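## Example record

The block below lists the input lines for one assembly entry, exactly as stored, with component labels intact.
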Amino acid sequence: MITILKKLGSPKWFYHFSHKLTPWIAFFSITVLFTGMIWGLLFAPEDYLQGQSFRIFYVHVPTAFLAQSIYIAMAIFSFISLVWRIKLTEMLSKSCATIGISYTFIALVTGSLWGAPTWGTWWIWDARLTSMLLLFFLYLGVIALHSNFENRQTAAKAAGILAIIGVVNIPIIKLSVNWWNTLHQPATLKFTQASSITVDMLIPFLICFTGFSLFAAWMIILKTQNEILIRESKTKWLKEAIKNHAI
Amino acid sequence: MQFNSWQTFLLMGDHGFYVFSSYGVALLILSANFLSAKIQKRKILKSLINHDKHNASY
Amino acid sequence: MLMRQLTRWIYLKVNLLVFKLTELFRVCFHVLKRDLILSFTQKFDWLNPLFFLVLFTSLIPLSMDPSPENLSKVAPSSIWTAALLSSLLSLETLFKRDFEDGTLEQLYLIPYPTSLLIFMKIFAHWLSSGLPITLLSIPLALMLFMPADGIITLFYTLLIGTPILSLIGAIGAALALNLQRGGLLLALLLLPLYIPVLILGAGSVYAAVSGLAISGQLALLAAMLIGCLLTTPLMTMASIRISLT
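Predicted structure tokens for the full assembly:
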């Protein structure tokens, strides 16, 4: 088991494998994402309660969901790298942080833009918005740790510990924010009756979701390749690859 | 197709601003991610190649 | 014959165990005493957070209409926020001095469980920061016209909550040991992790003031404290090791 992990965890293997894979992921993520977005903008039906503003759903929900999943993935990568001392997962978890915080930001902004026409305000201290904001801060801490250390490996270890604590903290945050929200119920603002999603709304949503996931994978691969280039710059295989213009 | 004309598409039942700025922000940030990764890669490669030449000249 | 040998063997083993345990207890007590003496001789180490707490809470009435009913509304949130920030402020001194003079490295070399010794350090730190903060917040709550029910709950929640803050904070302090601007980074790292404690702590004071049940929230806080007691010393140990290399 550990030997397989070690083999998969070798940066050289990952670089060559992902180098072959990237054109495909790039192609699919862009086409799927654009298909989903155009479908969401043009062909999906309008919601009978929220009207056209429901189209924000196709951007907001996938990014919000992925922001959380990427955080969990980051913590798992960090855990693997701390326990089995695998370099590749360190780099992977660092790459997760950048795309994760981007998705969190998109989810926050689109949530606010969706809230304005449906709730009548840009921001409310609603349980879900608040926990998204806290997720943003958690990502910020991880990124700050990564950029504050001179040694990349030390930085990755420190950030890894923070990511793992954060992932333990996410359910506790959710629980406490939910409780806090019932204690201070915002009096006038209530989310309009949850609209039931029909099949012709579900299809563009799933396409968008796939597109955003593929894009995240693509970005994580690109960033990890960059990390490998920096960290492995002294190794023989990389020098030869650069000489042969194989990169 | 849900819209008859460009006019109705851009208006989006008076929610055009919200819808288009959401999609715009998303696309903007996604492309910023992509571009920063590409620029970073170019910089790294340039410095690596320069470093190699530097070493070879010694 | 066999029986006698066996009892003798058991007797020796038990003796050894008792000896080891007393030794461990003595070392732990020594670490606790040393840290307490050090922090109380360095007056500003333990006084600064308390000054901050007093100053922060006296800014609140100055920045608003200071009528008693208004003040009692914001009292739980402002005192809890002040307590949280001042315990954050106190964290910088937790490992810094021992890190600089090399004492922290010694903790990893002596043949006693390091996480236990680190736990004793955190406990000493809580005794010199969290406990005074908890005690001082009672007169401050009186100054902000908090009702009696609220003050009792405030005391309990701070008594359970400040150890959690110290325990989680120790991990952050350990991670930021090597860094130049550690203090600012510490706030960025720790405040998101502190939020559940803040919500539950201040929220249960609010609930108590408005006559709602609070046992559930107190139980949750206590559960968090137990969880932190079990896990954070180990994580702090790992974090210090990262900073030492």
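Residues 60-184+213-243 of chain A form one domain. Residues 44 and 145 of chain A are 42 Å apart (CA to CA).
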